[in-house]
Write a structure and sequence with these properties.
Elements (H helix, E strand, L loop, with lengths): L1 H16 L19 E5 L2 E5 L3 E3 L2 H9 L11 H10 L23 E6 L3 H4 L8 H4 L1 E2 L5 E4 L3 E4 L5 H12 L8 E7 L4 E6 L5 E4 L7 H7 L8 E10 L2 E5 L1 H7 L13 E6 L4 E6 L12 E4 L7 H7 L8 E10 L6 E5 L7 H4 L9 E6 L3 H17 L17
Parallel strand pairs: 3-17, 9-13, 14-18
Antiparallel strand pairs: 1-2, 4-5, 4-8, 6-7, 9-10, 11-12, 11-13, 14-15, 16-17, 16-18
Length: about 400
């Protein structure tokens, strides 16, 4: 029976000896992609095969010359992908910088008017009531009533202008009048902070200017693990602007700290689009060995070495370290890169190679690995055949019954 098993093994070897087994490399390394890819050229989309670029020291130098390959680059791929994902026509950059204007009273604001030496005018509803409940509420039409002064226009005016009008009207009845006007409760102007912040909701615009940074901090800050700090949108007057919080925090770009005004919607986008994908012969051990996985780019920064490490590293048993690829779809500008890491010091180059969102890293399989796996699958069958005798009767596993 062993001769029969050996014969079966030789037959299989003969049949597969002249066959191309998937996973084996029977052709030399190609310099171009095998399929055509959509590529933008002269404002048109054409189909062409991409050249495979080798990651060398010179290639790293060329990539580092382009500031947009870095996280804070104004035209970083993350911005292009963000617009492509949401389908918006985001205005690049921030709104035109406006000088600070003093707070203008609006409808539903509550004013506190103090007339010195005249408590009957200051707190006509009772001295033990709060300023908010005893104050003068500005109506929806923007006016309020005050004794001896009548109807006073408040909306769209500063407290100084309101005070000047009240002083003029009350001076007819009170000599050397002294009065003060201030806003007790700000309720007319609102800003909406939504998205990946810890406490989304409505924030009120007060006499102190409300900026993007103050609004984010008042909302409990961004969610560090899920927020895309490079793609914060500000919707104002029918337009959507792009704000880069990371550029403000780390780059010191104060132009990103826009002053907010009534009706603004500040949205901190999620980080789900800032992913890279690791496929092929990698492993992190256990049940996840060899599985494909996606990795989040922390603050939009990750190198090829970091991605390979976080993805489990190259499988020493099955991977061909000389055939590591980076596929970059881009927006009308796809690229393919190749890293020959047969020598481990090539990972020094990989540590300088900046990845971009949606990059796909593929670690190719070593030659002959699929054949070895087929042999491993056949081996149990051969072992089972060896358990039979020449007459095809199963050898007894239990002692015969008496």
């Amino acid at each position: 029976m062993r001769k029969k098993s050996l014969s079966i093994f030789l037959i299989l070897a003969t049949l597969t000896g002249c066959t191309v087994i998937p996973g084996m490399h029977v052709s030399p390394f190609s310099s171009q992609s095998s399929v055509e890819i959509p590529v933008g050229k002269d404002n048109e989309t054409i189909l062409k095969k991409l050249n495979i670029q080798t990651i060398t020291a010179q290639k790293i130098v060329d990539l580092e010359k382009d500031f947009n390959n870095r996280s804070l680059g104004p035209n970083n791929a993350a911005n292009l992908y963000f617009d492509y994902r949401i389908g918006s026509k985001t205005v690049k950059g921030t709104p035109v910088l406006e000088n600070y204007k003093q707070y203008l009273v609006g409808p539903r604001d509550i004013l506190n008017i103090t007339v010195w030496e005249h408590p009957e005018l200051t707190i006509p509803a009772g001295e033990f009531r709060s300023a908010e409940t005893a104050g003068n509420v500005v109506g929806e039409d923007g006016t309020f009533f005050y004794p001896y002064a009548g109807i006073v226009q408040a909306a769209g005016r500063t407290v100084e202008e309101i005070r000047a009008e009240l002083t003029e009207k009350l001076s007819k009845y009170i000599e050397q009048i002294q009065l003060d006007v201030r806003v007790t409760s700000y309720r007319s102007q609102r800003v909406y902070v939504v998205g990946e912040v810890n406490q989304p909701g409505i924030q009120l615009v007060k006499d102190i200017p409300l900026t993007v940074l103050e609004a984010i901090n008042s909302a409990g800050g961004v969610k560090s693990e899920t927020a895309d700090q490079r793609n914060v949108t500000l919707t104002r007057d029918g337009k959507t602007y792009s704000i880069n919080l990371l550029s403000l925090y780390e780059g010191g770009d104060t132009t990103q700290n826009v002053m907010l005004k009534h009706g603004d919607v500040l949205n901190v986008a999620d980080n789900n689009f800032n992913k890279i994908f690791v496929l092929g012969e990698t492993t992190i051990g256990g049940s996840n060995a060899g599985r494909s996985r996606s990795l989040f780019m922390n603050k939009g920064r990750m190198t090829l070495t970091e991605a390979l490490s976080d993805g489990g590293g190259v499988n020493q048993s099955t991977a061909d370290a000389a055939r590591i690829f980076v596929f970059r779809s881009g927006i009308n500008k796809p690229e393919i890169f190749h890293l020959d890491a047969k020598s481990p010091d090539a990972l020094l180059l990989a540590d300088r190679f900046p990845l971009q969102p949606r990059d796909v890293i593929y670690v190719d399989r070593a030659e002959g690995i699929r054949w070895n796996q087929i042999i491993d699958q056949i081996q149990p069958t051969i072992t089972l055949l060896n358990a039979f005798d020449g007459s095809m009767k199963v050898k007894p596993f239990l002692a015969p019954l008496n």
